[in-house]
Amino acid sequence: MAEAAANLVPSPIAIVDDSRFDAHHDGSGHHPECPERLVAARDGLRAALGDAATCSVTAREAKQDELCRVHTPHYVERLLARLTRGYGNLDPDTYFSPGTREAAWLAAGSVIDMAQLMASSTRQRGVALLRPPGHHAVPTNSMGFCLLNNIALAAAAARAGGLKRVAIVDWDVHHGNGTQDMFYDDPSVLFISLHQFPFYPGTGAAREIGRGAGEGYTANIALPAESGPETYGAAFRELVLPMLRAYAPELILVSAGFDAHQRDPLASMNLDHQTYSAMATSLIDLADELGHGRIGFVLEGGYDLYALSDSVRAVASASRGLRTELPLGKLHDHERAALDQTRHFLAPHWQLPLI
Ligand code: ZN
Prior knowledge:
The chain is α/β, with parallel strands linked by helices. Helix content is 37%, strand content 14%. Strand 2 (13-16), helix 1 and strand 3 form a beta-alpha-beta unit.
């Protein structure tokens, strides 16, 4: 993979970040979803962008009607009641602290504003460094460190802002089950997830392709443990990019978790920062090719601090114009079989190249 400098992007990159996200912590200092993650991510962002032009999205809390585009009113009210004070757990994996309510509402509101900014402009790229993460949160519950589904809220806000087709690419190592649930019967949001399988949360088999009017608009690329750059490169060239090209979304959002990195302590994939740079480059190119250039990266998981910093730097550098080619190379038979599974279920809906 060769990295090559390109013309820097002239338009400012929209950045979501706020120190109040750091007030969400479990109190012990031992939970992998910790405030130090954002410290590392900020270091990576700063290393990539330096004094480059950015525009900060002013953090604000999400409103009830915005949250209820993807969550049930009952869940939002129940969550508010639980988060009034102290420390505790919402479910076996998801903790809360005195700062959680404000952090979660600010994260959601900020990413909604980033999506609305994109919906009302062109050539706009964005990077949202936020906590708590969101893609496991389902319409009626918290799950897997996630309280409010930030990226689903962003997609729903873009739709409410007038965009007809939004795509979400989820490269977090875990399946984005919450996001899938929210748009499973909705053809106006194409959801593509690449994840380790079988693995937490247990969903995301290739046969899960959507329902009713949404059939064909959910794509699960369920990859075996130890998959590396070549497998992700092939998945992008053969499946992700052809589907996106055919769908022609007016906005691309990325559930950008970095826990498929080879250093991550929670998962077993073998990516490096260059693969994240390459995947980001390919999606940025596609957004440009589609004529609007709208693409936003929203932080999800990633639990090795060095890997997180390095990978955020790679994606932010790509957003600024540094180009990295998708990795090439031979796949193991079981990795090839995994891609063929997805192709098998989605071929009736999309023109997918045969390999
Ligand atoms: Zn994850």
